[in-house]
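Q: Convert this sequence to structure tokens.
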Amino acid sequence: MMGFTLTVFLLLLWVSSSTSETVNDRFIQCMSIHSTPHANSTQVIHQPNSSFYSHFLQSSQQNSRRLNLSTSKPLLILTPFHEFEIQAAILCSKKQVLQIRTLSGGHDYEGLSYLSKAPFIIIDLVHLRTISINIEDETAWVQAGAILGELYYSVSMKSRVQGFPAGICPTVGVGGHFSGGGFGTLLRKYGLAADNILDASLIDVNGRILNRESMGEDLFWAVRGGGGASFGIIVSWKIELVQVPPTVTVFSIDKTLEQGLTKLVHRWQYVADRLHEDLFIRVIIQNVGKKKTIQASFNSLFLGGVDKLIPLMGKSFPELGLQAGDCTEMTWIESVLYFAGFPRGTPLEILLNRTHPDRSFFKAKSDYVKEAIPEAGLEGVWERFLKEEIVFMIMDPYGGRMNEISEYEIPFPHRKGNLYNIQYLVKWEDNESKISNEHLHWIRMLYKYMRPYVSKSPRAAYFNYRDLDLGSNNQDNYTSYSKGWAWGRKYFKGNFFRLAWVKTKVDPTNFFRNEQTIPPLPGWRIRW
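A:
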């Protein structure tokens, strides 16, 4: 009986291997038919026996926690240099019944840009990162494989008084970041990255290259905050640059429990969203020290000099006790390095490094706060923090420009009425199953504790802080709209139906799909 079982196992293993090889061969042959005769397939298509395969696979995985949850690796990794190679990959994936994961920077919190339980390929846009800046009309075309650091650096090389309102982490890819909303230190002045997109180039399920005019306003609306992976493959964005002053001011003031942080954080909730739009003050809560205490860092960017900041803070938030000696004046591009955690004097070229220095195991969740959390509620958070090891709660203020944009303008709906956004983050160093589950349980219990203090009906979440705890789609081709509604309304609120309507219109067979892509509407057939 043992011999029979072993024989069957080896036979199944051989069949699986040969089938996989056959699919690879068929895919490569299909790519050669649909690509130009001069295309170099060895530079674009990487098989598992290639050293480049391992390199690109490892470089793509920013959250190592998800790796041991995947049942398969990509059959192939493609690193296209041209749009026609992406067009061919879409057509060939459809023929071979393969799913596609599109990778820009690899920062999807749940790894959905590089993991799949179904047979799949990865399209890594690492070679598509050209940035073309037109200073005269204050615009730029940015290919989706570029990272934020490359964008910020490129803008700074052209102008000291222009920037772009996107995220703080420079290794995040613009492809996914812009399509999910994207916010950073300029959001109170200029809104989201997605609010400042003028055009886009997208390859749809039929392999067509579409721009804003040819895709239509519905699809253009959907990809600016609704997640591009649901609708096609974003190749590039046209963005509107924004004005920044020659001098900005930064400060970071740390307070511990013993220094009265609870009252300061409580007070911050009443002023942060009402401050002048040129002033951004976020709060980072963490546990620190050998004896463990709670520390709050009031981390700020002001679009102007110290001489204007000090009287403004004295009027708006005197409790923090800001002094001129706490502040540092610099250029806007230097502030990008400051918020990324680099010391003063670090060369700007560090922004071109695509590798994130911290690849720990982590789990994140998010919330929106509409009413100030009472001091007793904050103290309950501190108690829970002291029971964990590496934890953060990042509170980003809204208000300003965010209050002026309708929640229906783009799919991102979290506008007027939100005081701030919360990101909860727990990290650990050993990914052994039992240890990981303990940390996951901790952050889920913290999230449960926060329920009375955050937004309701729905309890909102930020799409770029992906969280599969909120719900996920079926893995097969059929995805229930009602099942998607469970998580979709938390990310998109009333915009979820319109997103599903657009999905039905542009990808009715649901070819572009993962655990949290927009599902098509059941039984609908929408004509162009």
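Residues 117 and 257 are 45 Å apart (CA to CA).
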